[in-house]
Structure formats: C-alpha cells, structure tokens
Amino acid sequence: MRSFRFLFLGGARFLRSGDRTSSSASSSFFSNCSSRDAVSNGRRRRRRFATITTTTTTTTTRDDDDDHLDDESNRQLSLYARLPERIKRAVAAQIPRDLLSPASSSSGVGEKKKKEKTVVAIALSGGVDSFVSAWLLKNALLLEREELENNNNNNKKDLDDIELKAILMKNWDEREETNSECQFDADRRSAEKLAKYLSLSLHEVDFCREYWQSVFSPFTESVQRGETPNPDVWCNREIKFGKLLEHVKQGEIGAKYLVTGHYAEVWREYGDDNTKRSSLKRVELRRAKDETKDQTYFLASVPSKALESVIFPLAELTKADDVVELIAREVLGNVANVLDRKSSAGICFVGKKRNFSDFVHEYVQRDPAWFVDVQCMKSENSSSGENSRLDSSNIGSIGSSSGRSSSSISNSTSGSQRRGLEIKGECNDIDEKYILGKCESVHSVTVGQRARIGGLPNPYFVVGKSTEEKGSSKVYLCEGGDHPALLTNWCVIKDIHFVHDDDDDTDALNSSQQVRVKTRYASPLVPATMEKVPSSNASEQQEREQEQQVSVFCRSAYEKATTTTATSSSSSLPLTTASSSSPSSSPSPPPAFLRITFASPEKAVSIGQAVVMYHHSTSRVLGVGSVAYHGLTVFEEKIKEEKREEKRKRGVREQQRQS
C-alpha cells in the first residue's frame, strides 16, 4: 500500500488514541489479517497528541516521525478497507461529487493551476453516531484517494486539498440552573477524546443565546397555550442547520459542507453537462434505511438550500448492526468508551434525570385542571344540583391532598368537595360522577398519555385539553388505550413549511394531493390526503357548521386558530424556505392552513405536534406543519349518530301518535 498524507487543520495527524482498546476486540472480524497487520495492530506506543483547543486552531506540541504518521494512516485505512462492500458503497454514495472533482481556479492558457482547499466541518457531539460518521467520511475520502493514485487518474481532485474540522456545539447551559456539572461537560470530554483519535482539531461554538431566542422561548409560549410542541424540529432548522451551518461556512472555518450523524439521506441530482464538474441540479431529503432510527421527522423543516451543504454518512446504515456492533464495537473497539454514553435522544434542555413537568413549570405558570371522563358527552341532562357542580375556585387546593399523587384526588371525595364546573361543547353542566380527579397542571399532560390518577380499576388516557380561561381548564380522559375518543379522521395544520417551495409539491395544493404522514416521531407512516383550507370568507352559518365538525376536545385551540390572522397565527416560529437567494425569484408564501384527511382514523393527534408529509410512494420528505385543531373523534361521531337516530325515532313516534 502506498504511503500518503491527508491534510488536516493545523497539521493534525492520524495518531493512535491512548484510549484505544486491545486489538482482540476486532479479532473475529479481522481473522484473516496478515501477520504484519497483526504486529502493527499489537503495537501500543504512548504518543503525545496535538493539543485540542475549543476556540481557535490547534497548537501542535510535537511532531511524530513521518513513518509513524504513515503507519497510523495506513492502519486506519486498512480497518476501513476491510468493511463490507455494501457499507463502503453506502458511505461513498453520500459524498458530494465536487469533493472528488478537480477544482481549478486558473483562467489563463498555460497558467499554472492554483489549488483550492475544500473544508468539511464535522459536528462532533461526543456520541457514537457523530463519531462513526466522522470516521467513515475521513476514511472514505482516504480510500478514494488511494484508488485514484493507484489508477494514476489525474482528472480527479487532489485529496490533499481537503481539510476536516470538528465542531462541538453548545445550546444549553444546565450549570446556570443546577450549579453543578452539566451534561455538556461530559459531552465536551468525550468529544475531545474522539477528536484526538480522529486527529481533528476541535472548535467549540456557543449558541445558548440563539437557542433561547429561537427555540426555547417559542417552546414555552406554545406550552402556555396548551400545545404539545416539538423543539427538536425548530432546533434543526434554526440552530443546527441554521446558525451552525452559517457559522462553519463563514469566517475562520470556511467550510463548504457540514457533516452530522443524523439518520437521513440528502439525495443529490446532477446536471448532465458532461463536464469534469457537473453542477448540482436538485437535492431531496429522504428517509434513512433504518426506519427505526430515521430522523427526517425532525429534519422536515430544514430548507433545500441548507441541505445542499449537508452530508449524512449514516443514511444507508442501520444503527444497531452496522454503526454500533460492527463499526464502533467490533472494528474500532469502543474508542473512548463511546458506546457507554447514553443516547442523546430527547429534549436536550430537560436532561435525562429531570422530570419534564417540574422543569417546564419553572418557566410556565401552572394551570390546575379537572380530569373529566369523556362519557359526560353521553349525558344530555346532567344533574345541575348545587352539590353536583365543581367550582373552579376549588382547583387551587390541588396537590394538598395527602396519600395520593398531586395529579389525582380520592374517588371517595364527597359531592360537597366537587362543586361546579362548566364546559363548552356538547354538554353544559358536568355531573360529579364524571369528575375523575384533579390535574396539577394542564401543561403537564399531552394527548395519548396515561393519566397519573389512582384509585380507578382501569387506566385512563388523555383525549384532549380545554384552556378557555385560567382556573377552569379541563383534561378529558377516556378509559383504555383503544378508546374511540383517541381516534380522529382529519386535522388542520398551520406553520406550513415545504422543503422545496418552487416545484410540484406546492403547485399540487390547488387540488387535493395524496401523501403519507407521520403525526409523531414514533408513529408509522399512514396514507392521507392533503389540501388547502379555504380562506375565512364564510358566512356565520357556514362557520357554525364548520365548528360543529371540530372536536370538543380541542375547541379552544380551534377558536384561537380561527380568530388569529394568517400572519400572526404562526406565533411559534416563522417557517420560510430559503431555496432561492434572489429577491426577484422569491416564491409565494405557503398556505396558512392545510387539511390532512387520514385514510383511516389516526390515534392521539395532539395540538401543536408536528405533522410531517412524505411523497405518497417514495421516501421523499415534502414538508411539515403543526396541528392547529382536529375533527370530531370517532367517539363523538358515534354520539352524534346515536342522537340523530334517536331524533329520527322520536319523529316517527310523533307521526304515529298524530295519525
């Protein structure tokens, strides 16, 4: 194998990590290694690494001999070269063509070609996904260079002109709240160890202020409105592929691409101009091969212009088998104990050890509510006696009861303790038998969640929330997780964002369009129809008819959505695409509302939750919106049908009496 070098920032080099485990970890995979490789893998020389700095460039403390550098480069490349061909092909398919194409900046005939340096920034979080992504990309480029050198191909880019720079991003400072070590400190230590192994300089960037303004503040405002927002969707658009991408492409780093460990694919289409450097024609965001880890749900609001500068090396790999077991454990031997770190999945600012309800109420005022059984809707003439009504002033004592969770009250509570509660919708006064307990705050529960309420023979689940006015909020519950009150046939989404805003995805909205959707990250893809919601020029009669089709369990959300103008209804975040930088070619804004009609009833559609739209027959992501309100549940439709049937029977009986 021919020796070569690969250029990294500050002269950083391929050095063996002191945390590298014994080569026996990979003996099963490399049982056919030559004796020379075995001896090389068995060496354990203590070396000094280039000093990692978290702000600027790396300062080299001591140069190793060229022989050591070449040995380490070849050793790492030999590990990569022995990976299954399907993995190497999958990684190579994600590398943009221009990284391996000639980059000429000379213009005169006979003028010496001036080499350009292409910088690739790698987001290194300290976890296994970002680390494996960095290792795969680095060695895929090295292997490509070796093959080009062996083929003596002078029409390809000299890979010595590619720099890799590692980036560690900080979004949240837990120390300000807890006065103790935060999770980011552990992330930094892990990222530094992994960067040393990769021989990359590590740059740290702080986006805490930007994250607060663009993600966390809108999140708390959405929670205050009784919604169930997903801040990870906003973080990817506004921070990771917004502020971070902008940061690495400008100034000191000057990168052309940003590499992350997301499980998603950026598909690229190139022009057929038969030149050495075909132009990029179009990019698409597509689902990852590993459907259990696919993260396009959280990436659906990232605009196509940003995706042009993004590389996802793990797009066609599976996490459990390929990334964790084969590469990180068997091949690399759990470098820096990266596999011992817990997954970073979840809301980053809550952390792994904190209770979500306790955390969110540090920023959002509690709104106590009553747990109400949905069976109340079947009672047309509920008892209206003084002792059967719940007084909203009684909610103030929530949490004071002993021997029971703060989110519940005893079933033996006397009627005098359950005074007056008024409800808007299908029924007026609620009989005390439908009051199941007290909820500590309407903001601590979401649709589909099991209610924390004791003393009942069967579990109850959250169907919806009513937040008309503070002190009279209600949380509707149903008995059992398969109750028809959890199912609805359609919803309306707001804050619309399309990955592309200049193609058939938006043109097709002039009529209904067949799509597939995900209403939450863990839910399956389901077929649906997408269409525009007409502008609000309806008469009062039409508005009343429309309101009757909206579920009682989200009536307050419907009122908020329909009484707010299109420009101010997106109070969480402005969702605009950036596929064109030319003002003259600026596309028309997306519609204010879209109606999503499911092919079959969808479970636990929650107000504020992201709904991601996919092409009806491919893995391409179309866009995303958040639930503004939804239609009648199957339970409500059944009640309406029963009432219509009862009304018909009364009419028949009346006619019979008159005749």
Task: Describe this structure in a few short sentences.
The chain is α/β, with parallel strands linked by helices. The termini are far apart. The protein has helices spanning 35-42, 66-81, 85-92, 128-150, 175-178, 183-198, 208-224, 231-249, 296-299, 304-307, 319-331, 356-360, 504-507, 540-548, 555-562, 566-569, 634-658, and strands at 118-123, 162-170, 202-206, 257-259, 265-270, 280-286, 310-311, 369-373, 435-439, 460-466, 473-479, 487-498, 513-518, 526-532, 594-603, 610-615, 621-630.
Task: Please characterize this protein's 3D structure.
The chain has helices at residues 35-42, 66-81, 85-92, 128-150, 175-178, 183-198, 208-224, 231-249, 296-299, 304-307, 319-331, 356-360, 504-507, 540-548, 555-562, 566-569, 634-658; strands spanning 118-123, 162-170, 202-206, 257-259, 265-270, 280-286, 310-311, 369-373, 435-439, 460-466, 473-479, 487-498, 513-518, 526-532, 594-603, 610-615, 621-630. The protein has 659 residues and is α/β, with parallel strands linked by helices. The chain has a six-stranded antiparallel β-barrel. Helix 4 links the parallel strand 1 (118-123) and strand 2 (162-170). The chain is built from 17 helices and 17 strands. Helices cover 28% and strands 17% of the residues. Helix 2 crosses helix 4 (128-150) and helix 7 runs antiparallel to helix 8 (231-249). The longest helix is centred in the last third of the chain and has 25 residues, at 634-658. The protein has three domains: 9-106 and 113-340, Rossmann fold, CATH 3.40.50; 356-479, no CATH class; 484-580 and 588-639, Translation factors (Elongation Factor Tu (Ef-tu), domain 3). It is elongated.
